[in-house]
Task: structure prediction
Amino acid sequence: MKKEVTIGIDIGGTNTVIGIVDRAANVLAETSISTTGFPDVADYVAAIHKSIQEELLKDRNDLDLKAIGIGAPNGNYYKGTIEYPPNLVWQGVIPLCELFGKYYRIPVVLTNDANAAAMGEMIFGGAKNMKNFVVYTLGTGLGSGIIIDGNLVYGHTGFAGEIGHTIMVPGGRECGCGRQGCLETYVSATGIVKTVSELFALRRTPSELRRIPPEQLTAKMITEAAAKGDAIALEAFDKTADMLALSIVNTVAFSSPEALFLFGGLANAGKFIFEPTEKYVNEKIQQIFKNTVKVLPSQLMESNAAVLGASALAWKEIEPQS
Amino acid sequence: MKKEVTIGIDIGGTNTVIGIVDRAANVLAETSISTTGFPDVADYVAAIHKSIQEELLKDRNDLDLKAIGIGAPNGNYYKGTIEYPPNLVWQGVIPLCELFGKYYRIPVVLTNDANAAAMGEMIFGGAKNMKNFVVYTLGTGLGSGIIIDGNLVYGHTGFAGEIGHTIMVPGGRECGCGRQGCLETYVSATGIVKTVSELFALRRTPSELRRIPPEQLTAKMITEAAAKGDAIALEAFDKTADMLALSIVNTVAFSSPEALFLFGGLANAGKFIFEPTEKYVNEKIQQIFKNTVKVLPSQLMESNAAVLGASALAWKEIEPQS
Result:
């Protein structure tokens, strides 16, 4: 009997990673192509097809490809489109799933990367037995994927799950979305850098971080400083956790998940982010939700999480509703 | 052929209303009993049963009772319980559906009143063809019912949909839940009264409302003053709408509904609340959600909405998933 597999495709601004994944989360083979090298998206899809057939599936008659899942910025699950992606070379509404239909007669499904991460957590990660949870991806921005009753929330438009763009501070920090005070301007790798700048102004405390030009300061440097006991770095984590906890308790009021998973850059700061977040969640949470929700690190390895997430989307598509 | 009906039971702090409802939203018969008159909840359920059998269903062999739906404060759909209700005579966890099981072998389901209102909107009201929408009930507090993919969101605990207790202003107004700055302290019949008090302090503008003792001031009086052009009343609606719009755009970022329905006291203020809310939603909403969501008045009559909502819960329970 052939082994059933799906393909996960992670479309990043620079590179596109393509992997074959079995049901046990093994990435059997992986390759990548440039995302930027194809001004015409039809050529790009042709190149992905070629990579799959001539590299990944070459001499693999033992594999039975069941479905393809794609994680892409501004991906719309309902329409199978990428819509007005700010960081990709293609413009407007790109009918990606339709283009794949030229080559494949199996299901091809697409969503944004944070939704794919949530699906990865459910199919392969720490949420295997959960029906209600939320994933916060803490990278340059803050993405989120919301699972309710075992399904991703896409909403009326297909774009639901933009917790990073909930407004936490009316009139607050300028956001890339054109508005002000969005969660991701506070809680993300770039957000904590801004918080450090704010603390430089507020506090007289010395800090080695004051020696670094703000443009070069990274969340990783702040984590390293925190590990050495730098007071500004520690307070920056505390303030970030405070805002994250506020978002978490509001998310809990909304959909009452069993767990919140933190994924990506900032989540790697470990206890510096998890301990204060837990403390503030306990302080802020509504009585009826006390002790009903956990804040957990993602169980997906960052190195292949995106491909696993995209693949999980494909597995979910072909598996009967549990 | 007998006519299929369900019973909707609305448990209020003072009275319990019980109605027979057909699939076309006709309340065929209605009665009520005192909620406070039964220190033992078993006696209360016996009294409801008696009212149903001896009043509502008496000489109605033409009716086929299919299910019972109950709307109750702190109702838990999963467990069929009322849990620690602050305003009822019974204490702790009350296994209401189980108690009904003594009398009925048909499905008996229970949820909180705002969830029931959302179900009523979907089965009988303005959301008949919608799969994703949210109802805000603007009464003394602010309740909410969230429908995603055609189902009420109960979450892991059964208590999801507490948008009234999302924290909008950290350190803000004291809330009955023991915390501060919850949405319902700003956006509700009592919230707008507080906003008027705040404006009395901020503004020098004369207002007839200044003649009324704050304890006696009601949202209805504020609406009447607004209708007469009272500047404080109009600004209070504007500020209420501003906060409501902030909550709405954050709700849209979360679950991307097709519509938000406003129900109850404050929603009756009509243009004074809807016009500024629409304006602020348009101002605040994230680009990708522009023009994807409507803010609408509930299409349920307030006089029988609670019984219809409870009945809708029962209908939803016995109808096949669409």
User: Anything to note?
Assistant: The mean pLDDT of chain A is 95. Residues 120 and 312 of chain A are 5 Å apart (CA to CA).
